[in-house]
Every structure is written in structure tokens, then in C-alpha cells.
Write a structure and sequence with these properties.
- This protein is mostly beta strands.
- It has one domain (2-111).
- The chain is built from one helix and nine strands, in the order βαββββββββ.
- The strands form two sheets. Strands 1-9-4-3-2 form a five-stranded antiparallel beta sheet, with no helix packed on it. A four-stranded antiparallel beta sheet has the order 5-8-7-6, with no helix packed on it.
- The protein is globular, with a radius of gyration of 14 Å.
- The termini are close together.
Length: 112
């Protein structure tokens, strides 16, 4: 199952099940004019060993706590288009331990 920028479908996935953080990767890309953009990939696993990968593009306002200290995580993705900030449509947070939070322009979810 793949989900692209759709909070309604994402709610049906039940992110609470994916409580074990497997990886958190940040990628910076610099274009020819020297402008940089960031992307983040989050991989989490359920107790049944099902994996979910969340790809986020156009990432800004990145904040990291200490992801290494997390026993269980709780990832939420919120629609924040009403904030009317240029390039920001979604907010991604880890609620249980404040391990990370950021805003992004787009997201996709792959359920394995």
C-alpha cells in the first residue's frame, strides 16, 4: 500500500502500531544555484514485524531530540495547510519521546 499526501488514508493505517524506530535518515540536496533542500526517511516496525517507510520532502524546521533513547515511538502527521506558510503542508512529530519533529511540503508512506 502506498499513500501520497493523503491524511485520510493515513489514518486508516494506524501509525500507533509502528512503535519501533528502525532508521531515521536525513538527506540534503544542493541544486546548481546553491539552494539546498532536505528530505527525511523514517522506517518503523510493528510488533508483528510489519514495516512502514515514511518519505518526507521539502523538509524545514527540523528538530531532533535523542532518537537513540526511545523504547517506543508514536509518529503523527498533521495537515497544517491552514498555517499558510509557503512550502509547508504537513507537520511530522514523534509524540512519545520528542525524538524528532519537522514540517514538510509532501509525504509518502509505503506499507510493507
Amino acid at each position: 500500500m502506498n499513500i501520497w499526501n493523503n491524511i485520510g488514508l493515513l489514518e486508516k493505517v494506524n501509525l500507533v502500531r509502528f512503535s519501533k524506530l528502525m532508521s531515521l535518515a536525513t538527506k540534503r540536496t544542493i541544486n546548481d544555484s546553491g539552494q539546498s533542500s532536505f528530505a527525511i526517511e523514517i522506517v518503523a516496525e510493528s510488533s508483528e514485524k510489519q514495516r512502514i517507510t515514511i518519505h518526507c520532502g521539502g523538509v524545514v524546521d527540523i528538530k531532533f531530540g535523542n532518537p537513540a533513547e526511545t523504547a517506543d515511538i508514536l509518529i503523527n502527521i498533521f495537515d497544517v495547510r491552514d498555517w499558510q506558510r509557503e512550502g509547508v503542508r504537513y507537520r511530522v512529530t514523534e509524540e512519545e519521546n520528542a525524538a524528532f519533529s519537522f514540517n514538510c511540503a509532501e509525504f509518502s508512506v509505503e506499507l510493507e
